[in-house]
Amino acid sequence: MFQAALRAPDHLWLRPWRFLVVEGERREALGHVLLECLLRHDPDADEAVRAKALNAPLRAPLIIVVLATITEHPKVPAAEQRLSAGCAAHAILLAAEALGYSGVWRTGNPAYDPEVVAALGGSRDEEIVAFLYVGTRAGTAKTLPAMSTDDFVARW
User: For residue 76, is it within any domain?
Assistant: First the structure.
């Protein structure tokens, strides 16, 4: 999965991504980080919402935190670096599916909270692009709505 991620488009080979693997008991520690984030944003959150944040990382055996490492560069704007990290995250999900696993991409307030980045050992020039929840699918896959390419593709 990580080898697939390393093939993401990467202008000038900045390699603007980093991956944190969270598994086992460390998922509980991540739950505490998510709970602290929730309480910063919503100090009056009820007990059910607090429990959901605390237990969220326990829903999958593996969580991969995808970080974009943003470097000041005259030819590669920060937006391109974020897109590259997003492509790396997507490659991980595609590889997981190809290997017979399932994955879900999550963000929410924790992804945009610099204190969460710091709690995970990230630096000021890093941003969370995704929390990828990876594991074996329980039950059947969610039915996705049918879409027509005609609705999204035009000739210029």
Answer: yes
* Overall number of domains in the chain: 1
Encode pLDDT of 76-127 as tens digits: 999 999 999 999 999 999 999 999 999 999 999 999 999 999 999 999 999 9
Strand partners, 64: 21, 132
N- to C-terminal Cα separation, the chain: 36
- Maximal C-alpha separation, the chain: 53
Residue 154 within any structural domain of the chain? no
Main-chain phi, psi angles of 102, to 5 degrees: -130, 155
Q: What is the pLDDT of residues 38-88, one digit of tens each?
A: 999 999 999 999 999 999 999 999 999 999 999 999 999 999 999 999 999
What is the domain-level CATH number for residue 70?
3.40.109.10
Residue 71: domain span: 2-22+60-137
Within-domain flag for 50: no
The two structure tokens encoding residue 130? 């995704």
Q: How far is Cα of residue 79 from the mean position of the Cα atoms in its chain?
A: 16
CA-based nearest residue to 66, from 19, 111, 108: 19
In sequence order, the 6+-apart residues with CB closer than 8 A to the CB of 101 are 134, 135, 136, 137
Please state whether the predicted TM-score (pTM) of the whole model is above 0.85: yes
